[in-house]
């Protein structure tokens, strides 16, 4: 008996199924968009990270001359740069002068001033920045704050009796500026890597009515104490931290001044209160972050080299 013949097949037998795997020839065409996107994202991220790292590692090359109007900031800059005081009017913008030991020798052949502290060597090129003192123009100083290597707060020594409060308010704002606090951030060990030098420059000492540096320092401390009380009271509702700058670094005094030594409060409400609230304000309370000293000078009487040496001392 003949076996029935198989039904005619309409379709060719199906090829055995094999999982798809990119072959060497097809891979470029099939995967390249994905690879390109991944590469673009990777490169973009790397560039962003590098840019941010660069931005946060801004060079600390600015010697900032700040102070009320007519304190003599522009006169000091002119004397240092050009060896004489130009007639001035209130500055409306920031003036710069890049200091290098070469450029400062100048045409008169004067030596570059000896720099008393290694951290202020001018060989790396420091910028002397003269910021406008008018309250409405102080925002122009902000971009320079992350780069501040040294703050020179210039005071008209003949005006302290009248202007001490305004001087201290501006100084308080500078010392609690978030970007300056970041530069002076206290480490977990309770100390800044290197406190930011702050020089109280008591200018116009050629005038008979000028007060001496010690007196000016103590008047500023008194005013800073009052300002701290006022600001602390207004911040009391915002933060339980009373101070960012403990005097003993460890803050183990149990007075509630509240810094954990990490510097994490930079820019926060607690950063707006300076020093140790448990004691009358003194600059020495800031020593973990700021090395405060006072110099006396006259932009009119002193030579440029001498003035610069005082600012950098
Ligand atoms: N007698 C005297 N006058 C000064 C001295 N420094 C600046 N001045 C004068 O004070 C005024 C204000 O100075 P300026 O540099 O414009 O102040 P700024 O607003 O802080 O830049 C100008 O008339 C200067 O000539 C100084 O040491 N002694
Ligand atoms: Mg000026």
UniProtKB/TrEMBL annotation:
<comment type="similarity">
    <text>Belongs to the SRP receptor beta subunit family.</text>
</comment>
<keyword id="KW-0675">Receptor</keyword>
<dbReference type="GO" id="GO:0005789">
    <property type="term" value="C:endoplasmic reticulum membrane"/>
</dbReference>
<keyword id="KW-0256">Endoplasmic reticulum</keyword>
<feature type="compositionally biased region" description="Acidic residues">
    <location>
        <begin position="250"/>
        <end position="260"/>
    </location>
</feature>
<keyword id="KW-0812">Transmembrane</keyword>
<feature type="region of interest" description="Disordered">
    <location>
        <begin position="246"/>
        <end position="267"/>
    </location>
</feature>
<feature type="transmembrane region" description="Helical">
    <location>
        <begin position="28"/>
        <end position="51"/>
    </location>
</feature>
<keyword id="KW-0342">GTP-binding</keyword>
<dbReference type="InterPro" id="IPR019009">
    <property type="entry name" value="SRP_receptor_beta_su"/>
</dbReference>
<dbReference type="Pfam" id="PF09439">
    <property type="entry name" value="SRPRB"/>
</dbReference>
<dbReference type="InterPro" id="IPR027417">
    <property type="entry name" value="P-loop_NTPase"/>
</dbReference>
<dbReference type="GO" id="GO:0005525">
    <property type="term" value="F:GTP binding"/>
</dbReference>
<keyword id="KW-0547">Nucleotide-binding</keyword>
<keyword id="KW-1133">Transmembrane helix</keyword>
<keyword id="KW-0472">Membrane</keyword>
<protein>
    <recommendedName>
        <fullName>Signal recognition particle receptor subunit beta</fullName>
    </recommendedName>
</protein>
């Amino acid at each position: 008996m003949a076996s029935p013949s198989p039904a005619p097949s309409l379709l060719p037998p199906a090829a055995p199924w094999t999982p798809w795997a990119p072959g060497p020839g097809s891979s470029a065409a099939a995967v390249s968009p994905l690879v390109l996107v991944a590469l673009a994202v990777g490169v973009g991220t790397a560039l962003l990270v590098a840019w941010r790292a660069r931005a946060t590692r801004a060079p600390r090359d600015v010697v900032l001359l700040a102070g009320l109007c007519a304190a003599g900031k522009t006169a000091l800059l002119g004397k240092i740069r050009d060896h004489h005081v130009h007639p001035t009017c209130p500055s409306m913008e920031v003036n710069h002068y890049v200091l290098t030991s070469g450029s400062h020798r100048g045409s008169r052949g004067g030596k570059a001033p000896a720099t008393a502290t290694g951290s202020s060597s001018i060989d790396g090129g420091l910028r002397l920045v003269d910021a406008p003192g008018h309250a409405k123009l102080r925002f122009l100083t902000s971009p320079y704050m992350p780069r501040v290597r040294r703050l020179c707060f210039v005071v008209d020594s003949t005006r302290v009796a009248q202007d001490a409060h305004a001087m201290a308010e501006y100084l308080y704002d500078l010392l609690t500026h978030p970007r300056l606090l970041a530069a002076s951030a206290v480490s977990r060990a309770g100390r800044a890597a290197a406190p930011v030098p702050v020089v109280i420059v008591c200018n116009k000492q050629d005038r008979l009515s000028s007060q001496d540096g010690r007196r000016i320092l103590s008047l500023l401390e008194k005013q800073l104490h009052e300002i701290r009380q006022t600001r602390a009271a207004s911040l009391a509702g915002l933060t339980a931290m009373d101070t960012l700058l403990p005097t003993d670094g460890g803050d183990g005094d149990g007075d509630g001044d509240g810094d954990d030594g990490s510097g994490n409060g930079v820019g926060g409400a607690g950063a707006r209160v300076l020093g140790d609230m448990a004691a009358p304000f003194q600059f020495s309370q800031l020593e973990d972050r700021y090395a405060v000293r006072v110099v006396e000078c006259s932009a009119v009487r002193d030579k440029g080299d001498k003035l610069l040496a005082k600012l950098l001392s």
